[in-house]
Write a structure and sequence with these properties.
The structure is a single chain. The longest helix has 12 residues. It is elongated and about 70 Å long. Helices cover 23% and strands 34% of the residues.
Length: 307
């Protein structure tokens, strides 16, 4: 999925130039907004709005496969699986993923620390050699990292991560080689050795999530239409003022910046592209990723900054 980030230019002394007002860091524009509309193809929209199945963590991939086969698909965790994942792409098709908590239980949780500094030389184990119940617990403790994220461990100079190891029942915990007393001092993940430390036990809630998938599209073009319908707004259907059209065209042509307090024209357009996507004045907060203007679709990037 797309992750939007706001970059600060203060530390580097960069000059920020607006599309219509013109200002720089240290001027009388301490707060402003940036709007950009970038051309987007069907393939772009599909890539931005879905996660390839292969990029998910193995436990998530397994339950998606089970759900697609009509099997019972559940996953226990102390954090939400499929965080930030709305749609999954697999075998040329696209699926909506939904999760629901079907049960919960309080269990002992063990504070986990993994560090690449001061790694001992004895009692080591590779992640793939751990019992399946420990691998699942580690994925849950670390937020279900994908294989690609784990591979980044090889390139990092120093890593220190933590979480909580929890198991859904006494039987699962009895099969663990990590709790309550770890059988190993070193855990090898993604080509890196980590010093493994466990802290005191404390009660944590383990939730069992039921995973369901629904086919939404059989092609890239069909899926792009789905996400534009769900996350898009058609500016051609809006009664835009001449000033608003100027703003939109500036956003298409490299970007539009404006200092606060915002003009009425921009504030209304901001609501259309952010907090009130149906223009009804309902005040609903809805996600808008795409906008259609003059017959073309664009990806919406809108941020506010303080300098």
């Amino acid at each position: 999925m797309d992750r939007r980030a706001l970059l600060s230019a203060c530390a580097t002394g960069l000059t920020l130039t607006t599309g219509c007002l013109g200002f720089s860091v240290g001027s009388d524009c301490p707060r402003g907004t940036d709007l950009r509309l970038d051309p987007v193809t069907d393939a772009d929209a599909a890539d931005r709005s879905s996660d390839p199945l292969a990029t998910l963590s193995p436990p998530e991939r397994d339950v998606v496969a089970a759900a697609r086969n009509g099997e019972e698909a559940t996953l226990w965790a102390i954090s939400s699986p499929f965080s930030g994942v709305d749609y999954v792409a697999a075998d040329g098709a696209y699926f909506a993923v939904t999760t629901a908590v079907v049960s919960s239980v309080d269990r002992p949780g063990y504070a986990l620390s993994l560090d690449t500094e001061d790694v001992p030389t004895d009692r080591r184990v590779a992640f793939e050699d751990l019992p399946a119940v420990d691998r699942t617990a580690l994925y849950a403790a670390l937020g279900f990292p994908s294989d690609r994220e784990i591979e980044r461990f090889d390139r990092a100079r120093s890593i220190s991560i933590g979480g909580t190891l929890v198991y859904p029942d006494d039987d699962a915990e009895s099969r663990s080689e990590l709790v309550p007393d770890p059988s190993y001092d070193v855990l090898r993940i993604g080509g890196r050795d980590f010093r493994l430390d466990l802290g005191e036990s404390r009660t944590k809630t383990v939730e069992t999530h039921r995973i369901e998938v629904e086919s939404v599209a059989e092609s890239t073009a069909e899926f792009a239409a789905v996400v534009r319908e769900r996350y898009g707004v058609d500016l051609d259907d809006r009664d835009l003022s001449a000033e608003q059209r100027d703003i939109v065209e500036a956003a298409v042509d490299g970007g539009y910046d404006e200092c606060a307090p915002y003009s009425d024209a921009y504030a209304d357009l901001q609501a259309t592209l952010g907090n009130d996507s149906d223009g009804s004045g309902s005040g609903r907060t809805e996600r808008v990723d795409y906008a259609r203007y003059d017959g073309e679709w664009y990806a919406v990037s809108m941020s506010e900054y303080v300098v």
